[in-house]
Amino acid sequence: MDLWFSELHTPNFHVRVKVRQTLEFKRTPYQELAILDTLEFGRMLVLDGIVQTTEADEFIYHEMIAHVPLFAHGRPERVLIIGGGDGGAVREVLRHETVQRVDHVEIDEAVCEACRRWLPTLSSALDDPRVSQHFTDGVEFVRRVAEEDGPTYDVIIVDSTDPVGPAVGLFGPAFYRNARKALRPGGVLTVQSESPWFMKQAVLRSYKGMSRSFPMVRLYTAHVPTYSTFAWSFTIGTDGADPAAADVPDPLPFETSYYTPALHRACFTLPAFIERLLEAPEPEELRRQLDEEMNRAGGEGS
Question: Per residue in 16-54, is it b (16+ CB within 10 Å) or e — as a string?
Fold first, then answer.
């Protein structure tokens, strides 16, 4: 009998992957969780029917969400990672020798537990002594840091699920404002910002929302085979420094499988249709939503 997993992107398009075995399947307090053993991509983490990572191609996403902002900063010492319960982003961040502490915030402890069982090449980094884990809501965690502690982190990375369920608030302008308040001078925020082909509104929401609090916002892409069959986007904000112009060491101080100094610069070069998406006047409905969210959370400010 053939067993296939299907991920739907639109009512008219889906991606299918042949499955050898279901290793784990459960409903957590937050979402449906599955670990699948696939023939093409090895073990795969699936949350609410959406592929999060696979053994075969995880290095692309995790290298790009980690090394672009950390090298853009230059000498990061303290890093906050929200989401990414598989541990892949934590693993890549810890490869930077200047990093002294990583606060890892994951709302669903069951994700970390499952990945420790089935995806040890990613999750082993979670047990590094430099990592402090917090099983709580990332939006509330950042709000508390911003209001009570002030500038704390050099880099904040949001390795979230899609903007549904527990991750919705991580795509909001109020969160981006608090993230900037939680960053030290020269700090960098990077978020995964969805597919520019299938989820244009989510891309715009991240880009325009972050632009309300950060003077420099750029979008960059990477090609992850299991993510929508096209380029995946990341949005990065700084207090003014252009992340594309970062002085990335060449050669790198560690071996990578996707990220390179040349790719760091090149990933900010966007196809024309994405440039037009970002440069077009802000849709009125989106502008109204973002302004209302900022006002409900306490006014504009940056």
Answer: ebebeeebeeeeeebbebbbbebeebbbbbbbeebbbbb
pLDDT digits (tens, 9 = 90+) for 130-165: 999 999 999 999 999 999 999 999 999 999 977 766
Give pLDDT tens digits for 185-207. 999 999 999 999 999 999 999 99
Catalytic annotation, pick one of 128, 159, 242, 247: 159
What average pLDDT does this structure show over 99-111? 98
Boundaries of every domain in the chain: 4-54, 58-296
Residue 103 is among the residues annotated as catalytic for this protein:
no
The CATH code of the domain at 58-296 is: 3.40.50.150
Tell whether pTM > 0.85.
yes
